[in-house]
Structure formats: structure tokens, C-alpha cells
From TrEMBL:
Protein task: Catalyzes the ATP-dependent amination of UTP to CTP with either L-glutamine or ammonia as the source of nitrogen.
Domain called CTP synthase N-terminal: residue spans: 2-272
NCBIfam families: PRK05380.1, PyrG
Protein name: CTP synthase
Organismal lineage: Eukaryota, Viridiplantae, Streptophyta, Embryophyta, Tracheophyta
Organism field: Phaseolus vulgaris
Assigned EC number: 6.3.4.2
Keywords: ATP-binding, Glutamine amidotransferase, Ligase, Nucleotide-binding, Pyrimidine biosynthesis
Annotated pathway: Pyrimidine metabolism; CTP biosynthesis via de novo pathway; CTP from UDP: step 2/2
């Protein structure tokens, strides 16, 4: 087993996760089997109880693990399925050591950070690295490990000590350290400054780790003078210093690594010459280039609670992007804080209300994502009602599906007090209820989590057709509340159709309005299984409806497995060829544009 460790220096938010994902993709393109581990030094056992404002979205795995969003990047780039143990936290490590101490496993020894915590970290890494994640038998060839945080953080020190020991444990030729660091440009001087990176490497060496490859985050290509300084003062060969400059699309990052021969540098350190081949990234390159050249927009209004931080909905954004590229459209997301659509905002801040309403009315499609709590709920209901009454394509995810049910009950059935017990525990019309098996005292890990099976009730509905007319599908869940099964008949008699249910037939999974161009809600989170080139079927249908291509999507006989459609938009090479005649000037102009309307989510 070979190990590639990715660390970060100077500041946080440099893109270590994207860099680690890109390294994994590059190695996989070289014919190697790859797995990944993310280390988060916080004390939480997992990401499940943290607000999206803390670390972005909580990504959910097949086994129900609630993990850091970087594991979503790993899965999307490397097309693998990870487990909850692929996300290591300080909380998990200390909990396991304390449990062993209580059992008496340490035979009366004084339990200390070194060696007990550091040994536990190393054992965990080695154990998880050998778990196959690509559907094949046997362990992977390479494990990419990302250490969260920044070199110098107090909470990271036990992990750095453990990883230093681990590098000797696995031996020379089996461990490669890639250090991602910032090379800023001061506007006053206009010169790339290498001193912060020099200090970061010095701090890393002082803690027992020696970087083999330096990945420099810059706004532009690293000049030879700066590279020479870094090579001299950091004691790293110039050919092992990689520039990761800003690009408009993170799909370009693996191409930056390939073009600068990062794979060859890793092969040399890991003794993989003769084992691995030259990277085959032709399909990935075509997808990245064609994505950069798309210019005909499809506008999606995302009405949510955490819209001030795009990472809160990272997987939703990626799923929208995958579907948009498949439909050959440029994605533009209009972020609408749900509370800005409410009557209280209309009175207190009319300008914000008018701006939100304008964005909603200008959208080609409306998406209400998942969330918790009652803030902004009325605004989400207003958005769902607007989409339903004006026949605008609508996709509701988790809470978004529940919102659609509540809105239908209020507007169509005339049940004005229809509500969820999450928002009003004493409501007399509980159309959404707390699941019986849920816990009201323990928050962490007590929701209905992970991959669950949904059975289609008919193959004539849009959702079934989007999934290739399968009898059932497996999608990932994360919820505590559900549609009240006692009121389903009343809703269906009024025209709402629950086209997907669980194995008992009592838990509603998919809801549709048959007489609407596209109005679908899903209790599960389809975004978690969307991949570049294999968009989520519900997102593909949503974007297809928003840009007038739904019939082509539905009629395509090539929709298989997770929504890969050769007939609609996956002929990336053909798209790429079609754009060859676009001038270089026009290409450069497109590359400078944002794909996401009001955020810079794709800028690296």
C-alpha cells in the first residue's frame, strides 16, 4: 500500500480537498486503484451535529456516515463509495482509546497522547486504507490522506506526530507528502511572496514531516524566480514544485497536475515507475473544456436557509452542474434567502423582498433543498406555491418535499393550518410527523441515515422513467420527519401522487404532480450520488425541464444506472468538437465568468 498525504499551510481554505481529490483522480487515470481518508482534528465524533455555517454541508455516505464535505469531492472525482471510517476525527480517536482503557486493554499503563493516541491514529489509517471502495475485491494501490486544518494548529499536533511516525512505519518508497501552501501577491509590490510558504515548510519539518512535493496556490502561474527561491529554501527539487493557480472550474485542477507532471513526481517518490501508466484523462479533459465553453444559461432559483454560504449546499450545486453540462447549458444559480420571501421582510426590508421576488419570477426552475428548523419555512412554501401555480419546474429535496406537501394541503385541500410537527409540535393538522423510531433526546446519529430502498408504485411517472423504469432504487437519506401516512389518501385524492415508497408502503419517498411539467419532491438526497458524466436522474430531469429538454431526457433509452444518458448530453467529445470553431478570445472570456450566479463555488 502506498500513501499520499496532503497537508495545508499559511491559511485555511486553500483547496486541499480539491487537490487531494485531483491527485486521486490523476492516480486512478494512471491505472491505479485509489482510496481516500479525511482527517478532521475537531473533537466532534462526526459532522452530523454541526451547523452548515461551521464546515459547510454534511455529506452522507451509503453506510449512514455523516461526514465532512470533502468526502463528497473524493467520491465525485474518483467515483468511489467511502465508509464512515474514511473520515477520522479527534472525537473518534479519543473515544476509541478511552473505550479500550475502560476495557482494560492497556494493562494498567498510563494512557498518553504518545504512544496511545498516535498509535490509534496509525492503526485506524492502515485498517481503513485496506477497505475496498471501488466495487472490486482486495485493497487499493494508493491511499490519499488529507489532513484538515493548517500546519501549526494545536488540535492537529497529535495527527502530525502520528503521521510522522507512520511515514517510518510504512517505510521509504511508500509515503509521499504533498504540501499545499499559499504564495500571495502583494498589490503594492506586485511580486509573488514565498516567505509564508518557507515558514510553513519549516514548521512542517520541525514537527517531523518532510514534504516531497509543494503545491503552490497562486492567482497566476508561479514565476521562475519564485520557484527558484522555494526550491532553495524549502529543499525541494524545482520539478516537484507545482503551481495551482486560479481556474474557473475545479475540473481543470487534475489537468494542471497532469500538465506539470505531478504524477511523475509521485511515481518517483513511491517507486511506481513501471507499475503505473501515463494518465488517460481524455474524457475528463473534454468535459472540463466543454463546461468552460458553455454560455447559454439555465437559471435556477435556490430557495434555502443557508444561502449566504454556498458550501452549505455543495452537493446540490455539483448535481445541478453535472445535469447542466449534460444538457449543454451554463448553470446560473440565483440564491434566495427563504425568509426574504416572507411578509415580515416585505414590511421590514421591502428592497430585499422585491429583489428575492424578482429572482424567483426570473428563474427557469425552483429548487428547495434540505434543512432543519422553522426559519424561512413560509418563504419556502411561497416558492413551492409559485412553482406549482405557474407551472415552473420544481425540485424539493428532503425538507423541500415536505414543504411541497404542506403547501399542497394548505392551497389545494384548504387546510390552512397544515403543518409539520417540527415547526409546530401541537398542530391540529400534522401532515408531516416525527418518525416513530427517532430519538428526541439524542441528536447525533439518530436520524434515518444512509442508503435506503425506494419502490416505484408505477412505471408511468416521470421519476421512474428518469431512473430507467426500474422497480426500485437505492438513495441516501438524512431526516427525522416524514409525510403522515394517515393523510396520504386525502392528498392523493386531491391530485398529489406518491410515486415512490419504502418497502412497507407506509413511508413516502417521492411525490409528484402528474399534470405539472415537472414538480417532484424526494425524501432522499439524490445529490449525494451524482457524478460528473453521470448526473442524478432527478436533477437531470429538473434541468431538462428548466431548459425545455425534458422530453429528450425522458425518451432517451440510454438512461442507465445513475442517470448516464448518451442520447441527451453525455456525448462530451461531440460537444467539444462543436466548440472548436469558437475563437480564442471568446474562449478566454467564457473562462473568466462564474458558473454560479451569486457565488464563486467553482473558482479554485
Amino acid at each position: 500500500m502506498k500513501y499520499v498525504l496532503v497537508t495545508g499551510g499559511v491559511v485555511s481554505g486553500l483547496g486541499k480537498g480539491v487537490t487531494a481529490s485531483s491527485i486521486g483522480l490523476l492516480l486512478k487515470a494512471c491505472g491505479l486503484r485509489v482510496t481516500a481518508i479525511k482527517i478532521d482534528p475537531y473533537l466532534n465524533t462526526d459532522a452530523g451535529t454541526m451547523s452548515p455555517f461551521e464546515h459547510g454541508e454534511v455529506f452522507v455516505l451509503d453506510d449512514g456516515g455523516e461526514v465532512d464535505l470533502d468526502l463528497g469531492n473524493y467520491e465525485r472525482f474518483m467515483d468511489i463509495k467511502l465508509t464512515r471510517d474514511n473520515n477520522i476525527t479527534t472525537g473518534k480517536i479519543y473515544q476509541s482509546v478511552i473505550n479500550r482503557e475502560r476495557r482494560g486493554d492497556y494493562l494498567g499503563k498510563t494512557v498518553q497522547v504518545v504512544p496511545h493516541i498516535t498509535d490509534a491514529i496509525q492503526d485506524w489509517i492502515e485498517r481503513v486504507a485496506h477497505i475496498p471502495v471501488d466495487g472490486k475485491t482486495g485493497p487499493a494501490d494508493v491511499c490519499v490522506i488529507e489532513l484538515g486544518g493548517t500546519i501549526g494548529d494545536i488540535e492537529s499536533m497529535p495527527f502530525i506526530q502520528a503521521l510522522g511516525q507512520f511515514s517510518y512505519r510504512v517505510g521509504a518508497g511508500n509515503f509521499c507528502l504533498v504540501h499545499v501552501s499559499l504564495v500571495p501577491v502583494l498589490n503594492v509590490v506586485g511580486e509573488q511572496k514565498t516567505k509564508p510558504t518557507q515558514h510553513s515548510v519549516r514548521a512542517l519539518r520541525g514537527q517531523g514531516l518532510t514534504p516531497n512535493i509543494l503545491a503552490c496556490r497562486t492567482t497566476m502561474v508561479l514565476d521562475e524566480n519564485a520557484k527558484g527561491k522555494l526550491s532553495q529554501f524549502c529543499l525541494i527539487p524545482a520539478e516537484n514544485i507545482i503551481t495551482l493557480y486560479d481556474v474557473p472550474n475545479i475540473w481543470n485542477v487534475p489537468l494542471l497536475l497532469r500538465d506539470q507532471k505531478a504524477h511523475e513526481a509521485m511515481f518517483k517518490v513511491l517507486n511506481l515507475h513501471g507499475v503505473a501508466q501515463e494518465p488517460n484523462l481524455e474524457e475528463w479533459t473534454c468535459r472540463a473544456e466543454s463546461s468552460d465553453l458553455l454560455h447559454e444559461p439555465v437559471r435556477i432559483a435556490l430557495v434555502g436557509k443557508y444561502t449566504c454560504l454556498s458550501d452549505s449546499y455543495l452537493s446540490v450545486l455539483k448535481a445541478l452542474l453535472h445535469a447542466s453540462v449534460d444538457c449543454k447549458k451554463k448553470l446560473v444559480v440565483d440564491w434566495i434567502p427563504a425568509s426574504n420571501l416572507e411578509s415580515a421582510t416585505a414590511k421590514e426590508n421591502p428592497d430585499a423582498y422585491k429583489a428575492a421576488l424578482k429572482l424567483l419570477k426570473g428563474a427557469d426552475g425552483v429548487l428547495v433543498p434540505g434543512g432543519f428548523g422553522d426559519r424561512g419555512v413560509q418563504g419556502k412554501i411561497i416558492a413551492a406555491r409559485y412553482a406549482r401555480e405557474n407551472r415552473i419546474p420544481f425540485l424539493g429535496i428532503c425538507l423541500g418535499m415536505q414543504i411541497a406537501v404542506i403547501e399542497f394541503a394548505r392551497s389545494v385541500l384548504g387546510v390552512q393550518d397544515a403543518n409539520s410537527t417540527e415547526f409546530d409540535p401541537h398542530t391540529k393538522s400534522p401532515y408531516i410527523i416525527f418518525m416513530p423510531e427517532g430519538s428526541k433526546t439524542q441528536m447525533g446519529g439518530t436520524m434515518r441515515l444512509g442508503s435506503r430502498r425506494t419502490y416505484f408504485q408505477t412505471k408511468e411517472c416521470k421519476s421512474s422513467k428518469l431512473y430507467g423504469c426500474k422497480s426500485f432504487i437505492d438513495e441516501r437519506h438524512r431526516h427525522r420527519y416524514e409525510v403522515n401516512p394517515e393523510l396520504v389518501a386525502r392528498l392523493e385524492n386531491a391530485g398529489l401522487s406518491f410515486t415512490g415508497k419504502d418497502e412497507t408502503g407506509q413511508r413516502m419517498e417521492i411525490v409528484e404532480l402528474p399534470n405539472h411539467p415537472y414538480f417532484i419532491g424526494a425524501q432522499f438526497h439524490p445529490e449525494f450520488k451524482s457524478r460528473p458524466g453521470k448526473p442524478s436522474p432527478l436533477f437531470l430531469g429538473f434541468i431538462g425541464a428548466a431548459c425545455g429538454q425534458l422530453d429528450a431526457v425522458l425518451q432517451s433509452s440510454s438512461i442507465v444506472d445513475n442517470g448516464l444518458s448518451k442520447g441527451v448530453g453525455s456525448e462530451i467529445s461531440a460537444v467539444n468538437k462543436a466548440y472548436k470553431n469558437i475563437t480564442a478570445t471568446k474562449t478566454a472570456a467564457y473562462r473568466t465568468e462564474y458558473i454560479y450566479g451569486s457565488c464563486n463555488g467553482l473558482h479554485f
